[in-house]
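lol ok so funny story. i was supposed to be doing the assay writeup but got distracted and ended up predicting the structure for this chain instead. priorities right. anyway since i did it might as well share w the group, maybe its usefull for someone
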Amino acid sequence: MRVRKQQSHQNLKRLAAGLALTLTTQTALAEDVQTILPANAANEHLLQPIRIKAKAGQATLVERYQLPQTAESTTAKKIMETVNMMDTEDAVKYMPSLFVRKRNYGDTQPVLATRTWGVNSSARSLVYADGVLLTALIANDNNNGAPRWGMVAPEEIDRIDVLYGPFSAAYSGNSMGAVMAITTRMPTKFEATLSETYAQQSYHDYGTNKNLPTTQTSALLGDRHGDLSYWVSVNHQDSHSQPVSIITAAATVPGTISAQPAGTTGGFANAQNKLGQTAGVWGAGGLLHTLMDNFKLKTAYDFSPTVTANYTFGAWTNNGYSDVQTYLNSATTGTPSYGNVNGFAANTYNLDEQHSMHSLTAKSDTHGVFDWEAVASLYRYDKDMKVNPLTVVAGTTSFNPAGSMTDMSGTGWNNMDLKGIWRPDGKPGVHQISFGVHRNTEQLSTVTSNTANWTMPAPTTLISVGKGNTLTDALWLQDAWKFAPGLKATIGGRFEQWQANNGYNYSSTGLTSLAQPNRRDSNFSPKASLAWNANSDWLVTGSLGQATRYPTVTELYQLVTVGATLINPDPKLLPEQATSAEVAFERGLDDGKLRLSLFREEVSNALISQTNIVAGSATAVSFVSNVDKVRNQGAELSYRKNHVFVMPLEIQGSVTYVDSRILADSGWKPSGAAGVPVVNSVVGMHAPYVPALRATLATTWHSSDQLATTLAVRYSGRQYSTLDNTDVTSNVMGAFDSFVVADIRTQYKFDKNWTGAAGIDNVFNNKYYLYHPFPQRTFIATLKYTY
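and the output, tada:
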């Protein structure tokens, strides 16, 4: 405890010194982000709120709470003109430094990557819809931790704001990457929308050549009667995906040829894996056919002109079947064969999922001395089942009946926020003090059982169990203080108390049964920011903040195989401690803005999967453990202009450079993989999943009021998925390749009711892997009727 206190004092000293340095070195630069001091306001002594344009009377999140973070935004109109949109997560495709790892239509794991953290860092960002948390803080991965995007219908989106960095006390340390706030709209009169979308991907790789269709039907109905308004939305998607997995042979020394499965011909025996080892390719897996449905009811009631309450119910169902394709043939008959390779069984599975969400929000919007807000939400896995066979029938393309079933029913989370805003001098005033109380709880329940018949599953004997709870309580306070002409300081802090309990693991392998120790911890995270309006065109903001991210329940209660036994390698994981800084220079343009951000982040005890030695064993295995120190630093350049050279041309683009390095890792142990270089230290290596360079550019030409055409390009540099950076082979399963993807979209409004759109994603058919094979050229068309 003494060490932790000493570290906190040292971090506070660093924050103070850094803030002083920022204040003394900032140049006379600043920007107007829509509403800054008017040029003729010579007698005005207060810094005006930095605003992002919204509908009249509707304050954005940045404006309402005077949040200090750098912000980027997009609107419903911009999204519909520029993005080939099938799902809600598609909306942020061209926003600076963001990448959503969406493998296919119907993907249930589209994780948000930010400028400093990659696609396996779901708990290092926060996604909200109307103040309700959509991020699943049960995990920090690219699986169960993905935000629940389906709880927002694309047609109800009004705008999306993205806040970069953990510089506001209003958010937990999970905001170290970014906070995304989706704002939906409510109808002011009767509205109805019906849309039909069709997409087709042409996929060709190894022995797979398929045309993969997806159809989606969406309907949205809303109205307002006096003080009551409502939305009802339904969405049905029928999708077919490219392979999300490649079935390979066991890795061998590079340069060898993989042994052909007995009694077969075909396949690709000389293929490689990401480490350059030989790993023959025998087939494709994860060919998903998914039937997904979303239903949402949202109601709002205005108790007075300044007080509104909302209730939302969302239901999501997913029925999917993962098929496989073999590249092997029987050596005697020439017919297709699985070659007795059980990887075909592991990649064949059925999904049956039913989730639900309830949320209740209420807030005042007086713009006077005091405003308040209350948010409560509940998300539950009502049913969540995955079933697969265990083995193949020798010499055939069929499976033995015995299987396994993984049941996550009962998993879920609750969130509660009570917030207040006190403006002692009115609005605008010298001080705007915001504060709040927060609680979130997460419950994990994962039970894997044997079943006698995987096509008609009923559990027989247990294979493994993983259960546990986490709970976080927080108090926060923040003051936006306009202490001089053109200067605003935002000072705040967040105190959090975290606990984990009821952790339990069981494994039939070695008959392991573990009751995990209860955990408790607390931390205080200070924040400080200074914004300077140099004139009507320029704004400079310097920000510093600490952030604490506690281990998720999945990270705590993980199981790994050691010899013949499954154990939990480290139920005493320490929380991550991040110290972040940013200096942002923003210049207002006519119908646009230009921004340069310089940022730096140091994270102690970073929670990353790495090769390590489990206590009491000499075996090196991979599991989540604390990496002593990681540093992310770089620059982000963002540009947006709505009328270029007075032409009806809009441009939005960004370039982000990040130097992400491991500075210390006392727990690293080499894997000892055959034919792979032995790396005894990972100090100086690139941190996993963070590309050094990422860029986007989207141009939209308005040929008329009815017609808009967008050309867009997305680029990402190469990434490493290993701490020792030995995964250097590209275009293979498991690799994280660099890619350049070009997209095109045309939208035409036939009249006030009918709108059509057509486009192509990945126009030039770039083939790349981000662990999984990613979509190749895809055509998409939408026809929408709005009343």
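The helical segments are 2-25, 61-65, 76-82, 343-346, 553-556. Residues 1-57 have pLDDT under 50 and may be disordered.
back to the writeup now i swear
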